[in-house]
Batch of 2 targets.
Target 1
Amino acid sequence: MGRVTATERRAVLLAGAGLALAAGCANRNAVAHPGHSSGSAPARPALSGNLPAQLTHGPRDRPRVALTFHGGGDPGTARAVLAEAEKHGARLTVLAVGTWLDAHPDLARRIRDGGHDLGNHTLRHLDINAMSEAEARAEIAGCAERLERLTGSVGSWFRPSRSPTASPLVTRLAQEAGYPHVLSYDVDSLDFTSPGAAAVARKVLAEIREGSVVSLHFGYDDTVAALPVVLEELDRRGLAAVTTTELFS
Ligand SMILES: [Zn+2]
């Protein structure tokens, strides 16, 4: 195979993003996966030992990455992202906002049925590190209660709202609620700033490497459009997009 110049690479990214934009629009009204109830609660993840309470990335010596999503916003973008990931054999991690689950309860099962990780991103997505202990506890518990009711499990992961990292207090509260590890990230796609699909893909692909945990968001068209470009390039680099549970197992 010949070498691909930076200009050619950029052209491919832009072309891919354009195609994906059209696909994203087409998928916007896709119906939700019917979702069968399997009943049994998932097993706790078998994590490798001695992990810190707050995780920013997985092992750097294995060709695996985790694409993690803020579970909020337009459910059409969520369904489009999930369908695209599944087309590529990729598995995602969705950190769901509790009020988003109230508005779209079917998505909890949709995510789990697709083989993705589902976790807790607080009840209302407020600045949890600035809250009192009682308020922060209620934010974590409120989302955990919804996850448990909808899927039979509080999920494996907690991510704080409005901050990449959790304060020591919030970390302790998350652990008390059943989340041994707070999930941060080492690659920020900045997709929530709507910089254009090509910019989202470029930033992720410039920074992602073995073990990376990437922060992405449902609710933004740029993310939907960038995802096929990112997944194709990950394939080319031999990096598998796996659940966070798998990344750390
Ligand atoms: Zn968020």
Target 2
Amino acid sequence: MPSMLDAVVVGAGPNGLTAAVELARRGFSVAVFEARDTVGGGARTEELTLPGFRHDPCSAVHPLGVGSPAFKTMPLDRYGLEWLQPELPMAHPFDNGTAAVLSRSVAETAASFGARDAGAYRRLVAPFLGRWDELAQDFMSLPMTALPRHPVTLARFGLAGLPPYGVLARRFRDEKARALFAGLVAHVIAPLNGIATSAVGLVFALAAHAGGWPVPRGGSQSISDALTAYLRALGGTVHTGYEIKRLDDLPPARAYVFDTSPTALARIAGLGRVYDGYRYGASVFKIDYALDGPVPWTAEEARRAGTVQIGPTTGEIGRALREASGGQAPATPFLITAQPSLADPSRAPEGKHVFWAYGHVPNGWDGDLTDAMERQIERFAPGFRDRILARATAGPPQLAAKNANYVGGDIACGAASGLQLLLRPKISLFPYTTPHPAVFLCSSATPPGPGVHGMSGHNAAKAVWRRLRAE
Ligand SMILES: Cc1cc2nc3c(=O)[nH]c(=O)nc-3n(C[C@H](O)[C@H](O)[C@H](O)COP(=O)(O)OP(=O)(O)OC[C@H]3O[C@@H](n4cnc5c(N)ncnc54)[C@H](O)[C@@H]3O)c2cc1C
């Protein structure tokens, strides 16, 4: 290691690794320090239950990963990353045995909403079809670290996306499209009536048509391993098993880049109360299952989908989100579930499956949501319980213990609601810089927020290399 590094990155999650890669590929010397013994943060894969069952304790499905402007410029396929597409990106089943779907095809998606809403769906997505790359380039760099490159597309997207979910829902007459979109908004754990919640739903729907909702072969660890291997090939180094508590724990560097929560960063770098107003949000209760066979969904579409949302009405989904955000565990939780081994049989022994599910619970909640979740799954897949070979559960305290960024179990590293959905960690044109000129923030507590896409790392790296070049 040189006596003075250009940059040190704290945290080997997707954003920390992306920031390190972006700096290394521009010729800067970089070292990454990670608290855990393995890299990956929220993109990792582990045998949590039984031998041969490879589970994703955190991220599983990657619409924003396959569509990430940052990942697209990296040769990650050469380092083992391969996206596998389930037959359907997502299914949203109802009590009568039918399901709405997000398909790669707009026509199939629209048809699944029923005759009264098919046209409304086609009209909603039409202006953006074939434009994912230009849209992602701009909205994933928000707030404007650069002027938008495609102002017209971005403005149209802003008009459709900035209103709360309720405005978007009014385009539809029936519950199928409405519930599916409410479920999409719930992916960022935002209450349905917040600012820009329409944009959240729209982004996930457009992603299905653009790049699908794929899983990485071998599990989400493959994303982290590919980023790490590419970083090493560029001359960067990665050191695991180092929990950084003070800036002095790090080797001397011209820039320190933190893939941590803002409050941890303030503590470690001695920044005082600068992030005191930052809010953490609801958490999740996560279950990883080893199953004897596929989930026996009643709706045929759900048997072919990588992701299955469970919450048959907007009312039910809204209530579950309100309860979790308001401090009460929902009796009828809204669930996001994933079945990675449908697209990637290597994740489980032959004929067996891994199944991934979470429901929302209050920040810091230490109860057990297993029974409520399994009742919900049984409702749409009778016989599910009989297929369970083993399960691993993790509520807020367990999630927080595994990753310091999940404060109180908040997997979004900060509430994605109100202005904090768009402007994080505080209202600023420069969210990646801090009051300390050599200290930067690159985690999902900065725009564009949660998800495995590396764009916070990419944007932060831009701020770092500009500063380094200006010195
Ligand atoms: C249950 C669950 C399900 C999810 N599902 C999906 C999904 O399907 N698709 C998707 O795109 N996203 C999903 N996510 C979200 C996604 O995992 C995160 O948004 C993403 O990982 C954030 O990346 P990051 O690099 O900002 O932080 P993280 O991935 O959290 O990485 C931060 C890293 O920094 C390390 N660190 C923190 N403090 C220190 C310190 N002081 N010293 C050294 N190291 C430190 C941590 O150990 C960690 O490795 C899910 C998350 C969870 C928990």
